[in-house]
Amino acid sequence: MAQIGVIGSGSWGIALASLLYHQGNQVTVWSAIKEEIEELNRTRRLRTLPDLRLPEDMIFTADLAQAMEDKELLVLAVPSIYVRQTAAKMRPFCRDGQVLVNVAKGIEDSSLKTLSAVIKEELPMADAAVLSGPSHAEEVSRGLPTTCVAGAGNRKTAEFIQEQFMSPVFRVYTSPDVLGIEIGGALKNVIALAAGIADGLGYGDNTKAALITRGIYEITRLGIAMGGKRETFGGLSGIGDLIVTCASMHSRNRRAGILIGRGYSMKEAMDEVQMVVEGVYSARAGLALAEKYQVPVPIIAEVNKVLFEGKPARAAVNDLMLRDRTEESAGGWSGE
Fold first, then answer.
1. Does residue 253 lie in a domain region?
2. Which of 37, 149, 163, 327 is most buried (CB neighbours < 10 A)?
3. In the predicted model, is pLDDT for residue 17 greater than 90?
4. Diameter over CA atoms, the chain
């Protein structure tokens, strides 16, 4: 049995806390919002996961020291926009070599840093890793079969995380490509916004297939330019996560995109979804990274225009379709 602290009491944090508890671990969950902790202690339920009953001996606390001290593993499960400030709060209680796995997906808008880079700046003493893949909290909390990938700088850390999370319904692979895992996890949310916009406009399966296929192409080209491995983008944290996020109504990014396609503004869509829509924050960062590495990303660029420049969604799709003609595979023609 391991002592595990889950930092963040949203849907994903609670779903993973439940998974880890049922693996025989002692789990403590922290939230900065005292009212959330009081409700969890009182009801043993999270409103966004109403079918999940939380164990009586799972600990919920607003005391960060209690959640972190003497823990063999910390799971950082706050939205990407809160990762830096939360990591800074964690610094006084973080010991040298503390294994910490981040499960949020995003890129810091102001610095264009991946979340693991942000964590290393704020918690240089920690052994930081990531967990990502096609994994909606709603399904993990119900025990539906799910696969993810644990990325870390060394094999021992990745395999330790694999061991803690692995179960008959939650299969974990390992990878050294932390950067590639994070780029795939962040930018798939931007493509999911585009897929949702297409749904909101009333487009069909052909359109969605095109967005997923060309979307992973954009993500892969940019990820490789940044130093990620090609095989990562064909794996769970790349095409796997992209498919599920573009296709499922559990996806807050797709739901926000649907509303935008129906005429909502970006702010109105985010207010309606009532949860953090990570793709909105990653869209601008993704475009800035593409410009930095000189990689064309037409879908991500059009999503930015719709979100931040008021471009009509239908016009964005039309401009994507009418771009200059090009080829999918270069060279190899007979006679060349």
1. yes
2. 149
3. yes
4. 75
40 and 131, same domain (yes or no): yes
Query: What contacts 267, CB < 8 A, 6 or more positions away?
Result: none
Q: Which of 188, 267, 292, 311 is catalytic?
A: 188
Residues 232, 196, single domain; the answer is yes
Whether 138 and 241 share a structural domain:
no
Pure H helices in 129-177? 137-140, 155-165
Name which of 215, 123, 223 is nearest 177 in CA terms.
223
CB 80 within 8 A of CB 278: yes
Tokens standing for residue 62:
């607003």
91 DSSP assignment: G
Domain with 233, as residue range(s), is 179-321
Q: Where are the beta strands (DSSP E) in the chain?
A: 3-7, 26-30, 59-61, 73-76, 99-102, 127-132, 146-152, 170-175
Kindly report the CATH number assigned to the domain that includes residue 133.
3.40.50.720
| Number of structural domains the chain divides into | 2
d(CA 336, CA 332): 7
Q: Can you give the CATH number for the domain in which 274 is found?
A: 1.10.1040.10
Q: Is the Cβ–Cβ distance between 180 and 186 less than 8 Å?
A: no
pLDDT at 239: 98
> Are residue 198 and residue 295 in the same domain, yes or no?
yes
Single out the residue of 125, 121, 81 nearest to residue 100, CA to CA: 125
Task: Dump pLDDT digits (tens) for 18-69.
Answer: 999 999 999 999 999 999 999 999 999 999 999 999 999 999 999 999 999 9
Q: Establish if 335 belongs to a structural domain.
A: no
Mode of pairing for the β-strands spanning 146-152 and 170-175: parallel
pTM, two decimals, is: 0.95
Taken in order 94, 98, 103, 105, the sign of the CA dihedral is positive
CB contact set of 271 (below 8 Å; sequence gap of 6+): none
pLDDT at 274: 82
Residue 42 placed within a domain: yes
Judge whether 34 counts as a catalytic residue: no
